Each structure stands twice: as structure tokens, then as C-alpha cells.
Amino acid sequence: MSFEDVLYNKDKEILxxxxxxxxxxxxxxxIYKKNINLDNLARLLYSKIDILDNLNSCKDDTFIEKLIxxxxxxxxxxxxxxQDVRNDFKDLNAKNQEKLKLLKDKLEIxxxxxxxxxxxxxxxxxxQRHKENFKDFNFAKSYYDRLHYIKKEILxxxxxxKYIYKKSQKVKKEALLNIFKMIKNNQWISTVLFFGFxxxxxxxxxxxxxxxxxGQEFIYVITATSAIFxxxxxxxxxxxxLLWLLYDLEKKxxxxxxxxxxxxxxxxxxxxxxxxxxxxxxxxxxFKNEISNYASNLNIxxxxxxxxxxILIFLIFYLIICLAIKFQKFRFYLFIIxxxxxxxxxxxxxxxxxxxxxxxxxxxGISFFWIILVSKFTDIKFYASTLLLSVWLLILGSTGFFIxxxxxxxxxxxxxxxxxxxxxxxxxxxxxxxxxxxKNIKELKEMLSYKDETLTYKLENNTTKSLNIPFxxxxxxxxxxxxxxxxxxxxxxxxxKINEKVFVAMPTYFIKNSDRIKLYNIxxxxxxxxxxxxxxxxxxxxxxxxxxxxxxxxx
Length: 555
What we know:
The protein has 3 domains: 3-161, no CATH class; 168-409, no CATH class; 415-554, no CATH class. 59% of the residues lie in helices and 12% in strands. It is built from 18 helices and 14 strands. Strands 1, 2, 10, 11, 12, 13 and 14 form a 7-stranded mixed sheet that branches. Strands 5-4-3-8 form a 4-stranded antiparallel sheet, with no helix packed on it. A 3-stranded antiparallel sheet has the order 7-6-9, with no helix packed on it. Helix 4 packs across helix 8 (158-185), helix 14 crosses helix 15 (328-348) and helix 16 packs antiparallel against helix 17 (380-409). The protein is elongated and about 105 Å long. The chain starts with a helix and ends with a strand.
């Protein structure tokens, strides 16, 4: 808060304080009986108006501190008044008429019930006069519902919410500063955790084939690992914070009040447009195979129909977000449904969608952070613990989800090569075949079966041919294009007419010339240290000394 901000919003703040005072005198009859909490609240609001009316630019620091203190005091008085309201309405669960009448009489003395519901008195008096004719009418429930609504309106009125929201923002900042102070005051622990995190990620990723690397290279690897996978959650949270700023700005600008089709489409909101676009793109990327298969079944193959389908996905997300903003119950049920879908999907399709658990961790971390941003709680422990949980879930999820791509980008491993060139004296394992069968595999149109190391397939002219090929010289993939690990499997047999359809893929093989060896179709799991850790297409793994490499070409 600066002097310029206060000066710019001075008239608006004074008007809101005056409206707040009028609201108090209109709703709470107790203020005329010198209720201490209500009286203190009104006095604080008058003091705030007085300070704003007498701004002194030469002493801006002093009056800003006074305004901050008064806002805190107003918040505390609001909490006291809310507790009084809860106590006054605590008998709402009463079932019999006598208790309801006592509650009614008590509330009529303290609150202007008619301000919220013009019919609440009329209905009660009408029922009392004609109750013999309404023996089956559950008046207790009807009256309870009305009072419950009034209680909610009093506790969540816009004047209370404004100061509670201010306090929650202050508490959020304090929670964040406390975490930073804890890190700053424990630098040795933070340093150990920083390097320890990179060390753990490194060994978990390479636990099956941990490469031996010298000291300097090892420090570089764990430092780069820690830095990148700690920065990714920071960038995610920063983006969410910017998105929330846009949401909060539009909410204050009343852009979520008016919309098309009965207020369902908030066409003035840039926040909804951006979020719908992001969710649409994420949905398309995650479920591209399912969308592609669905489009093929509906013969949606041309460009125009594809664009229409993408627009439809965008509009669905747009409508869901609009409904979630407009209706609180819809948000709750949407969360329950999504949680159920994610749970069921994780059990039934975990093999179809890679790294689903890490996606759930990321979504959960984002959800917890969004709860922090939009909530109005004033408990610093809640924000600190929820923020730490959110960061932890994002670190865990982003590390597991992005590690393959990050290590590939850093050239640490997980790199697919079309081929690498080796020295002619390099000794390759017997499990790697030469190019004897490659010509036959290239002319293959469709695999029919493979049994007893005999491959039966169709050629381009639809004639059938059988060829004896050792299974170590073949590679298979499923209908989604994923390689099937056949190494160490014995008596491999498959019939596409009976079993789920699989396809023959180009295997890992080598071509040996007089001065070099070309090793094709490999994945280098690790480039660290003095050896390459290589995986063949069928899942077989082996090592090659880097000294034998001449050059390589990345596919």
C-alpha cells in the first residue's frame, strides 16, 4: 500500500465505509442497545473515514500504518460479530414449534430479518392463523430454510468478506515470508537438501544402470538436476499466480456477473478464454491417441472437421469453467466427479497413459495452490502447510513427468539414435543381429503370425510369405506404436487373427564395413561417464566404451 494508492482509492474507500456503517445500523438492531462489538466496529469505520478525510502527504508512513492497523482491528471485530451471529442462530436445528417460536422472537429483536426476506413474517403469521388447514405442511423445515439463508447472508455479506479477504492476503504473505526466512536462516540445511535432491533424483533415474562418473561431472549433473526440477514448480506457481491476478482483477471488475444465454457465458472475461485454451491444449496432448482413434471412427479426417472438433473441445471447457465460477455447488460436484474419474482411470488405464500418477500429482499440487489463492482463511498454519504440500506435489509430479525430456535435452540420456558409428574393432553382444534379415522386414506389408521363429507376413502384392527369423532379430510394437519388450522371453508366438494385433518394427541391428560399424535403432539410456548404456528395440541392454565411438547422428 502506497500513498498514491490510498489517494487514488480515497473516495471509494470512504463510500464503502459509509455503506458498511449503514448496513450495520440497518441489519443489527443491537447496535441501538450499545452492543460492544457492533459499537466498536462502527467506531473503527468512522475513524477510518476520518483518517482518509485528512490525508497528510508529509506523514504518509504514519497514516498508512494507522490504516493497516484499523483494517486489522475491523477484521477482529467482524470475527467477534460473526461468532455472535453463530451463537444466535445455533438453535436452527430445532424441530418443534415452541423452540422455533422462541428463536423467531429472539432473532426479531436482534436482527432486521425483513431486510433479507420480505415474506418471512407474512408466512409465519399466515401459518399461525390457518395452521389447522396445514397439518401436513412442514412449516418447521420451511422456516428453518429461510433462517438458514438469512444466517448465511449475514455471515458472508460483501462488507465482511472485503476485510476477511484483506486479512487472508496479509496472512498468505506472512506464510510465504516465514518459509523464505526458514530457508534463509538454515542455509546449511537448504544447501544439503538442494544437492541431496539432485543426488536422489539421479540415482532413482539410473538405479538399474548407475554410471560411474568423475567428481566434477557428477557435481554438474546433480546441480543441474536440482536447479531444473526445483525451478519447474516455481514457474508453474508463478504462472498460476499471474492467472489468479487476472481472475481477481476481472472478479473485482464485475466481469463474472453478466453473460450470454442467461449468464452462462462470461464473454467479457479474458481469464476464462486463456484457461479454456490451456485446458483444451492439455487435454488434446494427453489424449491425442484416443482423440485420433475417435476421429477416425467418425471419419473426421479433413482439416475443416478437425478444426470444428477442436473448437468443440474448447467450448466444452469454456462452458464448464463458466458454470464452475457461477455455481458453487457445481464446483463441488465437478471436483468429486473429476476425482472419481481420475481414480477409475488410474486403475483401469494405467498402462495406456504413461506417467498418469505424476500427472495426478501435478494437478493436485496446482489445485492446492489455487485453493490458497482463492480462499479467505486467516490461519497462517493452514497456508504454510498447504503451500508446502502443493510445492512438494509439484516437485514430485514435475520431476517424474519431465525427467525423460529434461535429461534428453541435457544430453544425459534417454536419447533415440537412428545410428551411431563405432570403431571396426568394437565387439558387440551376440544378442545384436547383423542386417541379414533387414531387407525382408522392409518389404513386409502386414504381419500374420510368428511361431517357432517363423514369421508369416503379406507383401505389397498381398501374397503370403514365410521366413525363418530368430526372435532376437525382430522387434514388435502394439497398435499404439509402443515397443514390446521381448528380450528374455522364450517360445515367442503370436497370431494376429486370434490375439490382439501387433506389428513388426525395425529391430536394432548393425552393418559392418572394413573400417567401421554402424549400429542402428538404439536408445542411449545414459551418456554419462566413459561408457554408453544402450537399449535395443527388444529391451536388451548393454554397454559400449565411448572410446570406440567415432561419430553419431541424432534421429
